[in-house]
Amino acid sequence: MNRHPPAFPLIALAGLVSFAHAETIGFDDAAPGSAPPGWTTGVTGRGSPRWTIEADATAPSARNVLRQSGKGDFPWCVRNDVQLADGIVEVKFKPLAGKEDQAGGIVWRFKDGDNYYVARANALENNVSLYYTERGRRNTIRYVDAPVAGNAWHALRVEFAGTRIRVLLDGKTYIDVDDRHIAGAGAVGVWTKADSVTAFDDFGFAPGR
Fold it and tell me: What pairs with residue 86 in β-bridges?
């Protein structure tokens, strides 16, 4: 997996956190058809997710993307070696297909497959949502209407420090709240829902300090 400068500017939550070094992963050094090395995949609830590296000529950073093409309640894919309490996580995603959902999301403070935060955008619903998942149950914090075109690349970003959480889609802030359900460090990664077929590229993160 290649590492290169962050795809998006790092703008701190005002007065709350400054950022240490950033890292961005473009999935271009992994073999197509394989699962991404250094990541763990799974599902909250039931299902058979399928996370693979695939070639994609439309990738924001050619040549590969990470794609989820299986089905499950809430499929996820997280980095094994990252633990953040405060910081930023961002990704570019492209909703490709799905009759029930066409969702792309970010997870953080991921303790295990049943406990984590998730922010997602959905092309079928045209909204951005923030949830906390606790004991395997997804709980809504906030929904906000937002334009999410299908079969197009979007930038999703989360900034978090203490209880403060900010969610941005394509550079615009849609959610800015305080929530204290999940504290402390956890893994970071990406997420989909139901029958969403979604591509991801340029996964970036930076710890707070």
Answer: none
Question: How far is Cα 78 from Cα 101, in angstroms, rounded to an integer?
Answer: 21
Tokens of residue 183, six digits: 């504290």
Task: Compute, in degrees rounded to 10, the torsion defined by CA atoms 76, 117, 143, 97.
Answer: -10
Q: How far is CA 190 from CA 17, 32, 33, 183, in A?
A: 23, 18, 18, 19
Q: Distance between CA 91 and CA 204 in Å, rounded?
A: 6
Helix (H) or strand (E) holding 119: strand 115-122
Residue 157 three-state SS: strand
* Domains and their CATH numbers in the chain: 3-11+22-207 (2.60.120.560)
Q: Tell me if residue 142 falls in helix, strand or coil.
A: strand
Q: What tokens appear for 142 in the block?
A: 């906030």
Q: What pTM was computed for the model?
A: 0.91
Which residue positions in the chain have pLDDT lower than 50? 1-18
Q: What is the Cα–Cα distance from 188 to 209, expressed in whole angstroms?
A: 17
Q: Which residues pair with 121 in a beta bridge?
A: 104, 128
What is the predicted pLDDT for the residue at 9?
41
Distances (CA, A) of 200 to 3, 77, 156, 161: 15, 11, 10, 24
